[in-house]
Amino acid sequence: MAELSSLSHARYGKDKVRVLRVVREGSWHHVVEYSVQALLEGDIDVSYTKADNSVVVATDSVKNITYYLAKTSPHILNPERFALHLGTHLVSKYAHIHKAFVTIEQLRWTRIPVETDGQSEPHAHSFYRDGEDKRIVKVEVDATAGKNQIVGKVTAGINDLLILKSTGSAFTNFVRDEYTTLVEVDDRIFSTSVDLSYTFGQFNIPAPKDEKKLDFVVPKAEPGSIWDVEVPEKARKVTLETFATDDSASVQATLYKMAQQIIADNSGIQSVTYTLPNKHYVPVDMKYIGVDNITPLTEAEVFTPLAAPSGLISATISRKQ
After folding, report:
1. How do 190-200 and 269-277 pair as beta strands?
2. Which residues are documented as binding site for 5-hydroxyisourate?
3. Which residues does the record give as 5-hydroxyisourate binding sites (predicted)?
């Protein structure tokens, strides 16, 4: 029978590799918790088309490599660097693997403050979950041009950062036609769950020089570059401060200001994407019992959350070339 199909794309690996790593500096400990996905591309077609497993690096091996590097990598405390280390090792170790795609979701752990001699100090080895937002890192390590010409691409950011302000937001002068029922408001609750991603420009990765291909060299960290460990906290700070202080004309307008500032602050970032779903809070109408709970700014105080439907606002802002 004539072939009617062909394999046009293939990628495989391990997902949801859960890692908690403790790094000890004497009595002072650091912890990170990651969920790791590591996927591979390369000369693997025959495993699909010919049932030939000789080209398959088992997904269980990918899991074990992830754990081994979590133990041995000096970059484990930084998800961007650890993802790049893992991806570089995978494409360097296996001759027929040309690309690695590593995604890391980092959960929040913050030191518990304790009272010591009248002062609040962070505890050396005790932590608490201080929020449900997560750091997200997505890395592509590409050795297609050769094992000595590896290039990296990184997108990083935040997911599920829930924020709310009770005033300082309006929504007026929008399109009105026969389908419009929404009332214009010059004051409202503004709440959203922030998904932020920012993408760095492509960069070269030095090839490992050791026999086991475990070496990973981090170059000088230029401010605002992928190697600058302060970028994630700066981006989070811009997001929160802009949201809090902007006299918002719309979600769209505030989003744009956030992204503009992140690009201005970080020379290595080429584009910024925000996805901001509305978290609607609607004032409860109490006119039936003679109570005004509708008038903005003065009387609207009791609200009901509406889960669905919700607005969804997204945009990508790119650096001018």
Report:
1. antiparallel
2. 60, 171, 188, 251-252, 278
3. 60, 171, 188, 251-252, 278
Task: From 277, 240, 247, select the one nearest 170 (Cα to Cα).
Answer: 247
- pLDDT averaged over every residue in the chain: 96
CATH number of the domain where residue 310 is located: 3.10.270.10
Catalytic residue among 29, 30, 59, 237: 59
First-to-last alpha carbon distance for the chain, in angstroms, is 52
Active site (annotated) includes residue 123:
no
Round to whole Å and give the CA distance between 279 and 310.
7
Q: CA–CA separation, 224 vs 264, rounded Å?
A: 9
| φ, ψ at 284 (rounded to 5°) | -80, 125
280 as an active site residue: the answer is yes
Residues annotated in the binding site for urate, as ranges?
59-60, 171, 188, 251-252, 278
Q: Choosing from 63, 165, 237, 280, which is the catalytic residue?
A: 280
Give catalytic status of residue 110 as yes or no: no
**Are residue 300 and residue 165 in the same domain, yes or no?**
yes
Q: pLDDT tens-digit profile of 9-41? A: 999 999 999 999 999 999 999 999 999 999 999
Q: Say if residue 164 is in the same domain as residue 251.
A: yes
Residues 124 and 187 in one domain: no
Q: Are residues 247 and 290 in the same domain?
A: yes
On whether the CB atoms of residues 306 and 280 are closer than 8 A, the answer is yes
Whether residue 301 is found in the same domain as residue 243: yes
Q: Which residues participate in the annotated binding site for O2?
A: 278
